[in-house]
Specification:
By secondary structure, this protein is mainly alpha-helical. The chain has helices at 2-25, 30-36, 40-45, 47-72, 76-100, 105-128.
Amino acid sequence: MIIAAQIFATAAALLHIYIFSMESLTWTTAKTRSVFKTSEAEAEATREMAFNQGFYNLFLAIASIAGVIALGLGHMAVGATLVFAGTGSMLAAALVLALGSPGKAKLAIKQGVLPFLAIALLILGLVLGN
């Protein structure tokens, strides 16, 4: 279960690195605007906010990857803590998105499913000892 949790935590981290790239690097492009359903004017007006928000996603990804590495090296307490912190924050952000912007529920589900699975599998792995 812990290995499966590591796989989902890594997938969640990779997704959040992609989100970082969209928010911080390509926010005003047509492709990214279509993903986030924003107009050109909205993208320009929120450019600085999105740039900052993208880095939050990157830092959550880094924490999750650091946790996956720590787990792989046998440091269960540190690794689990980092994976729970990183993916738990990702899942919480997805819930905030879904509740705060119901029109973006599909994006929230895409953002939250991988962290949810990582958390659930890590809990099972820790409880069951595998």
